[in-house]
Amino acid sequence: MAVEYDLIILGDTPEGRYASALAINYQARVALIRGVSSVAIDQTGVVSDSADLGDPVDLERLGVEVIHSQGVLTRVRQKLGVWVGETGRLLQGRAYLLASGALAQSASSPKISRLDEAELAESDLSALPDRIAIAGRHVNCFRWAQKLRAAGKTVHLLLGDLDWQGLELFFQRRVLSCLEAQGIQIFAQHGREDVSEKGDLIRWSIEKLPTSPIIEADVIIDISHWLPNLTAVDLSQLSLSPESGRLRISATLRTHHARVWACGTLLGLEGDAILRSAEVAVVNGLLGRRCSFEPEPCLHQVPVAPPILWVGLTEENFKQRFSEKQLGVLWCSWRSPTGEHNLGKILWHKSSGQFLGAHWEGAAGADVLAQLAVLQANQRSLYRASIVGSSIQVSPLPVLLQRIRGQRLSQRFWYPWLASYFFWQRQGAKS
Hints:
The chain has 431 residues and is an alpha/beta fold. It has helices at residues 14-25, 56-62, 117-122, 140-150, 169-181, 235-238, 272-287, 315-321, 365-377, 397-410, 415-430, and strands spanning 5-10, 30-33, 40-41, 47-48, 65-67, 71-76, 79-84, 89-91, 93-98, 102-105, 114-116, 131-136, 154-158, 185-187, 192-198, 201-206, 214-217, 219-223, 225-228, 260-262, 300-302, 308-312, 327-335, 341-349, 355-361. The strands form seven sheets. The chain has a five-stranded parallel beta sheet, covered by helices on one side. Strands 11-18-12-13-14 form a five-stranded parallel beta sheet. The longest helix is centred in the middle third of the chain and has 16 residues, at 272-287.
């Protein structure tokens, strides 16, 4: 098989360009397919055009062959390659890297006039109509719903296939009950199928609900959901089947195909993890190494009052990766000196004491989860960790660590007999 390139990168994204420059340092023959429509998303969710993040001419000077035509990764006559339709050319490489970014998935019908999140941020909320429907598939819709409700608007929140980003079901219900207490009407079921516009009024019928309600609003605000951009991949030919819109990959960022790798926002990564994933994918794809990519825990927050934050794995994720017997769970309730109630849930691995994830409702959540994330980054066991300079008046974490150690002690086989022995010794001394 005649191989033209060592690495072919699909996607004109920041991670795609970074991977191209990195691969050149390994004296590799690299091709970058620019004709893949994609966007770049930063940590705040702001979308920027990838064309403004660098000049492809610089990559050509480094030795990267930049191809501006549209390319699709597929099989042609049993040969894996990138088919460039405009030139009729099949580009073949030793490894392929998917860096095509993400695309916006609209939550409402394209036939209905609506505002997107960028237009909403620039508009005067008081000047908007009184009846507003928010179609959201991202947790940002909660923030806008509360802002509009505070401005005196009647808000209908249609969630549908909302991406909770790993929030557990118990805390999902806490979020919805908090919003309903503020007077926001929530429709969390599927079935937004009949949307019509009659004059200045928009009628939204939810057919799959038992009562089949009809929501009337003056304007629809669309909070888009970002899904992987797989337009440059022939999924049927490569036997790649995404789950819930996400591409399944291994810990080394390799897909089910042995020569296809993925990185960046295509995998739902944010911040520094985008470029770090490109580094791991390039090293594994070019050099045949098996370096694992473990993204740093990302702190998520739902902007409600009190705030709900979470980091790391959920209980369901843990059961998929480890044995259920190794799961340590601690529920805790704590009232701050100012009288604010806090509710938390902490997960850890029983054998190693490694912190795995936590959910927290309350003002102290940011401080508690940040300290737990530091312990995880330093690979310190919760059984031996100590929080210096912190007390129960400031943070409940020292007491929580003591309770976790107490659970570990109670799991020892000799603990019940030892506790019973001291109990009867104490009873005998009293008599």
